[in-house]
Design a protein that fits this description.
globular; mainly beta; 2 helices; 13 strands; 6-stranded antiparallel sheet
Length: 184
């Protein structure tokens, strides 16, 4: 497991450096208002949608490029565990699947409402880098390339397997806020 973790760190760092971003270990990231102390300390997390209490999940435990990211009842499987890998910029992070080592990604770099959230090889592009912000105990994720958009469970659905999308941010919206629950 340590070898995989080191490889993931090196892969993400390599991609980020190629894109001109500098990575700092999560435990050493500079504090910022809106980023929880727990997140800065690193670790592995489940992200539970506030409105449905379901976990952000790599659909079907798929490990290849382009896997859908959806909500599904929290069952403690590897495809529901995520790492926040903070850059040297305050509150800016890659969200990396513990299961397949892929980054959370806004498909095709779209800035449009309804753009699908998938996993993809970490490549350092801004559609994989998120403002990870704490709002009243819940995290919201805003991609750097579309700063007025948030990860969203469409229509406030409570149905399992509902794919996450990009949508206009709505302050306090339960379908755009995720509780951080430590997995390890």
């Amino acid at each position: 497991m340590k070898l995989i973790s080191k490889w993931l760190t090196l892969a993400a760092a390599s991609a980020a450096l190629g894109a001109g971003l500098a990575l700092a270990p999560a435990a050493e990231a500079a504090p910022s208002a809106g980023t929880t102390q727990a997140a800065r300390e690193g670790g592995v997390w489940y992200f539970k949608a506030k409105h449905s209490k379901q976990c952000m999940t790599v659909h079907g435990a798929y490990t290849g490029k382009g896997a859908a990211v959806d909500q599904y009842p929290c069952v403690g499987q590897a495809n529901q565990r995520w790492r926040l890998m903070y850059t040297s910029q305050w509150g800016i992070a890659y969200v990396v699947s513990e299961h397949g080592g892929k980054c959370l990604d806004v498909q095709g770099g779209s800035k449009s409402n309804g753009a699908k959230i998938i996993t993809w090889d970490c490549n350092g592009r801004n559609n994989q880098v998120f403002h990870a912000r704490n709002l009243s105990g819940y995290m919201s994720f805003k991609p750097l390339h579309a700063s007025q958009k948030c990860l969203d469970v469409p229509g406030e659905s409570k149905q399992p397997n509902t794919q996450l999308i990009l949508w206009d941010c709505k302050l306090g919206a339960g379908n755009q806020n995720f509780e951080m629950v430590r997995a390890s």
